[in-house]
Known about the structure:
By secondary structure, the chain is an alpha+beta fold. The chain has 2 domains: 3-78, no CATH class; 132-372, no CATH class. It has helices at 3-15, 24-37, 42-52, 62-78, 108-121, 132-136, 154-162, 188-200, 205-211, 251-260, 282-286, 293-309; strands at residues 168-172, 185-187, 214-216, 241-245, 265-270, 276-281, 324-326, 340-342.
Amino acid sequence: MTKRIQLQRFNDALHNLPTPGTGCHAALLGAANYGVMAGLSDADILAELRAAIKPGTRQVQDKEISEAVAKARQELRAAPAWTGQVTPRAGQKPPTTATATAQLPMDASAVAARQARLIEAGGGPFDPLADPARAAAGSNPPWPEWEAMSPRGDVLTFLQSLYNDDDLLYIGPDAARREDQANYIKPAAEWVEFFRAQQAEGTDPAKLGRAFPFICCNPLTGEPNESGSRRSDSNVVAFRFAVLEHDILPLDQQIALIRALELPIASLVFSGGKSIHALLDVAAYCGEVITTHERWRQVVKEALFETCLKPYEFDTSTSNPSRFSRLPGVIRAEDGARGRGVRPSVPLPSLTQSSPEPPPPTAPENPPPAERWQRLLYINGRAWA
């Protein structure tokens, strides 16, 4: 994240400082963090904070401001750095720096104002259900030819882009009985062949949506835990992705907000309802490979969700490592809307190799309205275009 952006965020934080007695003390640290990351000296940060503090019910001493600046400087030095230990998948660039950014809680009006600024910074509203021809005529981002492909290939692209062939994945209902859970856990390569065969046979995507609506975002051990479950947090074997969801804003503003936050998003999936599901690349976010539940709690649950995302009204209940996300390329059983994947940002070489295209599936007797089918959006590499 550039120093120019951090300087702008520092200025925003100065403008939004609460009056003393209404949360100013906590907000000082958040503003100081931005000043430190923008490369300002401690003296400059202190002077700017002192000038920005409004009259309130108590007096803010210079010592209090200095302590906030010193703590921000200390936290930046202690931030996890890239150690070179991540082995990226084919076609994936390793992260080089930690990208976590702390945001302090604000009141409802401040949250709304900050969301509006971030949405504007993210390129403005974009209609994910727009007609491709209209989008190609000037909407942001553009629609490449790849995105005109049939939605039936979304599930294959999604699985092949984000997972290794031997990753054990749960794909199925969210309430499968424990004795049935093993039936929904297979290596990613087997799931790819399964869905490819279903497409070749012309299986109704609505039927697939009833049987396989969800995917557990992270690979599992495949073995039951002490309580007999095979898809709980304790069953997670690789802590790669976190599910981000924000269903309060309209769809177009959800995408713009995620884009403006500059988080390392691996893929976006339209849920077929009122939300976009984003898979965040955890290693790229924090600059390290998370291997324990305790480290996940510190980095993802507390630093990412509670500190960074909660002020923008993201759903914090999705912060666990075994969280479900909607599987793209199937029709949502609840209302007939089709879950459509947004192009993952890490395509594997196998996706570019020529292979026989399966015959088109048989159209369902009662297909969903065309406007309910999610379109693919363009993500340029690992960064937003």
